[in-house]
Each structure stands twice: as structure tokens, then as C-alpha cells.
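Good morning,

Attaching, inline, the C-alpha cells for the sequence recovery test we're adding to the shared suite. The designed sequence is right after.
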């Protein structure tokens, strides 16, 4: 049997994207009898865990292997580990399986997920072999790739993979202490802040959520320059730091960093899939600006955004002289109805706070028509007009998790704050929410 050579990146990178059918041994390609992975797992376990990691794959990978998932079969622990890492965001998950022979291989996530998802429920047998292809006219050179074979009751598929040696490894956040965050609090915080980030890469620092931990307060802030979301949660229920020796003074906890919205959206998505209420462990490595979230058999690792986040607390210190309180549900319905008149050209809705009649008027006019909504409200202060981008206002009101909404204003051309009021839908989650909106001065 001829001796195989190591895989060359330039040759194997062209073989990643398409699945292959079983082939008979020829002078161009032959199977090499080398030990490979052999595992048996359930279709549901493999499909679910592939779904957990697959969203971290970049749309346009800078290298073919970044479109792959690293599959590591651990014979000792009888577990399979799946990892996807695009050099900025990485997700890793593990599940139990019958591992008869361990090892690792990388396989294109998209095609592997599509195959496994469509398999019927039941056991799947997974193994891999090395393939040596002698190129015609190049007798001194050989190209080696890996073939992953998946067998189920309904059929058998083979997919080309790449050596795990080329796959980038997840950064290790080797710190002694973890901050344990209640999962429900973290989900509410992410849901209430992510929508306020920007997708404009020219404002890179604003494409993430700023996270602060100050002793007993967890704070999340997000802004796109036109609106601001700030959420503060009590750290009651967050495990404290590990107790230091008696001769060592405990330093007060104070951390702040900005995490890309893409990473946090994946974290929110995965947490929504969980049924466990166990806390999420947060690790932060300041020297390398890396943050990691661990829970159960999953972890998400992300590089933080560089740069100074805007000094947003100053924006919340205005003197709010006007106040309006009204039921959330009717306000949402009214905004959704009048929003049908908005488009890319015109998104401004005019609000009139009528303190005499104790009602809020929403008005939008276009060339082809106009609309007006009237809603009962409790208004204190003088009557005034103010205009907002209707999408920003609707986003803020929808994010409020209470039966009523309160809006606090400074003037017709000053910022406004939207806060929850009345009964909360999750009273056990101790969280304070503030949404600041800048008015649209044009058209007032």
C-alpha cells in the first residue's frame, strides 16, 4: 500500500462544496486503509446540535475551511463535540454518542445539516476514511482528502471533508472566576437591546451591545445614534465571585466591554431553545478582549469590539417636564395601523399630547392620503406636538414588557424616554428599562 502524503491546502480547498457518490477504486482514486472515526448517534441529537452551531458560519468565508464544522469524537467520554468558528465568533456544543473510534474531521456545515435534517428519526452511523487521488501527469504528487460516510435506515451519503489540522481553534478564556447570570434575565436583556444596534459598519462600535457589570448591577446598552436602549438588572441571583483567602481583599467587580450584535443574537437564539433554567456563566479576558458564555454542554466565544463606547448615561439626565401614561396594546395597534402609510421616503409620525382632552393623537400625511388615531391617555404637563420615526417608536413600545407604557418628554425638539408602567409580564425578572428617542425636528 503506497504511503500517503499530507494534505495541501491549495488542493483540498477546491473539494469542499459538493457531496460525492460512492465510487469504485480506480487508478485516479483509491481508499486508504487508515483508522477513522466511527460513531453511532441519534438523528435528533446530531441535527439539533448542528442547528445550534451552523448559524456561526460566515456567508462569505475567507477560507473554505471556515464553512466547515469541526467534528471531534471523544472515545473516552463517549461524546461528540461540534465547533464552528469564523475567527471572530465561535460556537461549540456536545452530545452523547456511541464512539467506537475517536478522531476529528471538518465537514461543510450546510450540506451536512441538510442531509442529517432530512434523515428519518433513528440511529445514524458516521465514519470517515482518507482518500488518495493520484493526479494524471503528476505521478510524484498526490492529493489526500477525507470522506465522511453517513448511513441511516433510509440511505447512505458521502461528503468530502478537510483535515482538522487547518481548522482554527477556539480561544481559551482561562480565568479563574465566572460571573453567573440568570438565563431569563439575560434573555430579556438581549431581547430588549439588540434591536437598537446599527448595521452600519462605518459605526463599528455601535454594531454591538455594551455590557457593564458594576458589583451588583448588570447593564446592557445599545444605540444607533438615533435611539438608545438601556437595561439594568439586579444581580440578585447572580453568583458572587469565588471567595478569596482571608488575607486578600476582594476587589469590587467592574467590567465593561462591547460584544458584536451577531454574537449576541446567536446567544439569544440558543438560549430561547433551552429548556433548562440553569444560569449562564460569563468569562471575560480583558487582555485579548474575548468574552465567553458557557451553559450546559454549549459555549459561545466572541471577540469584543474595539473602541470607546459613547457616554450614553449623560443622555438620560434631562429634565423631563411632560409625562404621558397609556395602555400598551391599543398604542401598538394604532401605531401598526398608521404605519401602513410609511415608506422609505416618509417615516415621520406626529404625536399631539392633548392634556385638556387627556388623549394622544397620532397623525401621518402623505401625497396620496393621511391617517389619524386617537387614544385615551393620562397626560400631565402642557399640551405639545412632537415627531418621531415611527419604526423607532414602534420598536421601543413593542419592547416594553408591561401592560402600560409611560413616555417622558422635555420639549417638542428634545429627547423622550419610553419606560414600562403597570403590571410586568415577568415580575420575577428584576430589570429596569429605558428607551430614549430623538425627535424628528423636520415637520414639527
Amino acid at each position: 500500500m503506497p504511503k500517503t502524503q499530507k494534505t495541501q491546502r491549495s488542493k483540498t480547498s477546491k473539494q469542499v462544496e459538493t457531496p460525492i457518490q460512492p465510487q469504485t477504486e480506480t487508478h485516479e482514486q483509491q481508499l486508504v486503509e487508515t483508522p477513522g472515526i466511527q460513531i453511532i448517534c441519534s438523528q435528533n441529537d446530531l441535527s439539533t446540535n448542528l442547528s445550534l452551531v451552523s448559524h456561526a458560519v460566515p456567508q462569505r468565508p475567507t477560507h473554505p475551511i471556515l464553512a466547515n464544522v469541526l467534528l471531534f469524537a471523544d472515545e473516552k467520554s463517549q461524546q461528540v463535540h461540534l465547533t464552528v468558528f469564523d475567527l471572530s465568533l465561535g460556537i461549540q456544543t456536545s452530545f452523547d454518542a456511541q464512539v467506537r473510534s475517536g478522531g476529528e474531521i471538518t465537514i461543510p456545515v450546510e450540506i451536512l445539516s441538510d442531509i442529517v435534517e432530512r434523515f428519518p428519526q433513528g440511529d445514524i452511523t458516521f465514519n470517515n476514511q482518507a482518500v488518495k487521488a493520484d493526479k494524471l501527469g503528476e505521478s510524484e504528487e498526490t492529493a489526500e482528502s477525507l470522506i465522511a460516510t453517513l448511513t441511516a435506515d433510509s440511505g447512505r451519503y458521502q461528503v468530502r471533508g478537510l483535515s482538522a489540522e487547518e481548522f482554527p481553534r477556539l480561544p481559551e478564556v482561562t480565568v479563574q472566576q465566572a460571573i453567573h447570570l440568570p438565563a431569563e434575565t439575560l434573555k430579556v436583556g438581549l431581547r430588549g437591546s439588540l434591536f437598537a444596534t446599527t448595521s452600519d459598519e462605518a459605526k463599528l462600535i455601535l454594531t454591538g451591545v455594551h455590557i457593564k457589570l458594576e458589583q451588583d448591577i448588570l447593564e446592557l446598552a445599545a444605540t444607533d445614534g438615533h435611539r438608545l436602549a438601556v437595561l439594568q438588572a439586579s444581580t440578585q441571583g447572580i453568583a458572587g465571585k469565588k471567595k478569596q483567602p482571608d488575607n486578600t481583599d476582594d476587589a469590587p467587580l467592574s467590567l465593561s466591554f462591547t460584544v458584536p450584535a451577531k454574537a449576541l443574537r446567536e446567544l439569544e437564539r440558543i438560549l430561547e431553545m433551552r429548556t433548562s433554567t440553569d444560569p449562564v456563566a460569563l468569562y471575560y479576558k480583558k487582555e485579548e478582549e474575548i468574552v465567553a458564555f458557557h451553559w450546559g454542554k454549549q459555549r459561545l466565544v466572541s471577540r469584543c469590539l474595539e473602541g470607546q463606547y459613547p457616554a450614553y448615561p449623560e443622555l438620560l439626565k434631562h429634565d423631563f417636564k411632560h409625562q404621558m401614561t397609556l395602555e400598551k396594546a391599543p398604542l401598538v395597534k394604532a401605531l401598526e395601523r398608521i404605519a401602513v402609510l410609511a415608506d422609505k421616503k416618509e417615516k415621520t409620525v406626529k404625536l399631539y399630547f392633548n392634556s385638556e382632552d387627556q388623549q394622544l393623537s397620532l397623525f401621518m400625511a402623505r401625497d396620496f392620503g393621511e391617517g389619524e388615531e386617537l387614544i385615551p391617555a393620562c397626560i400631565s404637563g402642557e399640551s405639545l406636538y412632537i415627531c418621531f420615526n415611527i419604526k423607532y417608536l414602534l420598536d421601543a413600545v413593542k419592547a416594553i414588557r408591561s401592560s402600560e407604557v409611560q413616555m417622558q418628554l422635555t420639549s417638542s425638539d428634545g429627547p423622550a424616554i419610553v419606560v414600562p408602567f403597570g403590571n410586568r409580564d415577568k415580575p420575577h425578572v428584576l430589570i429596569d428599562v429605558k428607551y430614549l428617542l430623538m425627535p424628528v425636528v423636520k415637520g414639527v
